[in-house]
Amino acid sequence: MRPPGHSRGRWRRRRPLRTRLALITSATVAAVLLGACAAAFLVIRYELTRQLDLQLVQQAHQILRQQHHPAPQVLQGDCAWPAAPACAQVVAAEPGADPPTPYLLPVRPGTRLVASGRQRGGYSDITYAGRPARMLTLPAGTDRALQVAVGADGVRAAVRQAGQLMAAVGGAGVLLAGVLGYAAARTGLSPVARLTATAERIAATRDARHRIELPPGPPGRQDEVTRLAATFNTMLGELEQSVAAQRRLVADASHELRTPLTALRTNAELLAACERLTPAQRERASGALGRQLREVTRLVGDLVELARDEEPQPLVERVRPAELAEQCVRSARDNWPGIRFTLEIADGATRATVDGVPARLARLLGNLLDNAAKFSPPSGPVEVAVRDAADSVEVSVRDHGAGIAAQDLPYVFDRFYRSPAARALPGSGLGLAMALQIARAHGADLTAHAAPGGGALFRLRLPTATEPRHKSLVHKEPS
């Protein structure tokens, strides 16, 4: 058995949002309008009836002032007219005291009770001579009750006309509410419709260059739907850049891998025919094959590292940049024995700590040192300095090579970018791109400059460690 709301929920899902919003808006406006019309009708009927009751009270008081102890009789018998003077009669508490002339107005048991004082008087609607009338019954002395009546034709006609008018106004209002509700839903949801059409077009064409047209106006005065469309345009821009970067990365990676893979295949084919080679040739081919394998392995590893946007939070620790720089300089001296590495640590930077992943920060500094050593002349110096600032620790790496040309400076951190002077040197052009990604993942700032007097200067600003901002971070005191 289906739940009661199953069919209703299915109906809502089958109807467009514009139709549902128009129906809800129209129903709300129609309900308010019908309620206002009903309230107005009730007020009009109450006021007309109240005016008729006041007329009866005034007529009754006038009769009682004129006759202090009236006998049971018909005082005024012209009740056929809808206006004053009203017809009136005095009714006895006991039927035996009734006059010989019959009463004109209806005498009910409640009338006798009012005459005897056992019940309060009140108003009632009656029919006299086939026409509607309004009657007031109230005590008129001892064992007497006064009945005053007046025709209610005019009041009934006015109430009926008011009802017809309110019904017409309500019906017209419901139709107008439907039209305006649909127009409001169509106008208000037009950005959503454009957003939906753009999303469907992107899904069909896989082209993220499409954008939603926004209405003119200052950004600070846009409504929620327009801001949603603007946010969607921003998201499309980010998606377009991401797709372009992904395609560019794939194209660059395939280009960079083509050369070492071709060399690998050549050396592998050469080693396959080892019987034709001398021992020295086999040794050279085997060494070249090993170097090329290491180069491809390093290139693939760098690509995997670049594909990761964030650092693993559970591995974040408290790191001292001074100690990390000492370790990286020692490792660089072993890897580049022909380069003189110098390290200068300011007094305030010795105990400074930062939040980060030690292995990733070591990779960052190692890439900067390898880049500096690669472009340094033989036996040239590479200067490393660690300084403490107000809220950061700065690590600088400077070489004394050819430096960075002004036209190359904006692109030194791009993936696979290699200046014309560096194309003859070993490497894939991913070291600085990886260093920048690691720096951004740690909230650091990495910049490149042309050093005074020649050479290149890289500055890394790491924010000093503060209280943990995320409960998932695991901090360890450096040993």
Supply database-style keywords:
479 residues, five-stranded mixed β-sheet, 12 strands, rod-shaped
What is shown here, in short?
The chain is an alpha+beta fold and 479 residues long.
What does this structure look like?
- The structure is a single chain.
- With 479 residues, this protein is of the alpha+beta class.
- The chain is 50% helix and 16% strand.
- It has helices spanning 6-14, 17-66, 109-116, 153-188, 190-205, 224-272, 279-306, 321-335, 358-374, 431-441, and strands at 73-76, 87-92, 122-128, 131-139, 144-151, 317-319, 340-345, 354-356, 381-388, 392-399, 445-450, 456-463.
- Strands 1-2-5-4-3 form a five-stranded antiparallel sheet. Strands 7-9-10-12-11 form a five-stranded mixed sheet. Strands 6-8 form a two-stranded antiparallel ribbon.
- Helix 2 packs antiparallel against helix 4 (153-188), helix 6 packs antiparallel against helix 7 (279-306) and helix 8 packs across helix 9.
- The relative contact order is 0.07.
- Mean pLDDT is 79; it is low at 469-479.
